[in-house]
Design brief:
Layout: E1 7-11, H1 16-25, E2 29-33, H2 44-51, E3 59-64, H3 69-78, E4 83-86, H4 92-102, E5 106-112, H5 118-131, E6 135-142, H6 161-164, E7 168-169, H7 178-185, E8 189-192, E9 197-199, E10 202-203, H8 205-221
Parallel strand pairs: 1-2, 1-8, 2-3, 3-4, 4-5, 5-6, 6-7, 7-8
Antiparallel strand pairs: 9-10
Length: about 220
Amino acid sequence: MMNHRTRIKLCGLTRVEDVQAAVAAGADAIGFVFYPPSPRHVSAQQAAALLAALPPFVASVGLFVNASAAEVAQVLSVAPVSTLQFHGDESIEQCCAIAKAVNRPFLRALRVRPDTTAADLLECELAYRSASPLFSGLLLDTWVDAYGGSGKVFDWSLIPAELAHRAVLSGGLSVQNVTDAVVSVRPYAVDVSSGIEAAKGVKDATMMHAFVSAVRQGDSNSPI
């Protein structure tokens, strides 16, 4: 039996050359931020040009914060990303309704608070999974009083083992800590944005390659 290969999402890309470098590095998914206040924001037109640089079998994820179904549909009519990621205060009902309206699977970003328990995480995942066949999984990020990525790590020991293998781990991951994250949490996937940047919204090809290598190092160190 082979070790699990942790999937890798590189998020917040804004330039074609960064998309090409991410693909060359071995990314499984590319994330685009459709949240105007973010320094990594791209318009639907910009995202369409970036999508054109993607080869087959590399997933595209659109990050939305408190967007309406009409706003999401408008973006997808120009930039048809394959998966939605809800990162705001959307309710279960809103997430499910928007995903159904545009017929896309979705991830729910959950910002993990210091007092969050393993039972809380399992209960949340069960609620979403029961509510919609389009629910793909939870993306676990660090709690901050803001939207989008935090760039900060949370206590990974809060994640129950029975959830980790289905979840996406995010929040402050970098070349320096992602090997440990993979070994200790064994998530299905990891998600990084600020940890691979030369500047906000500008990715560093060398850092992307190093991040992927660090994930693979964690895979090789994980027990079967």
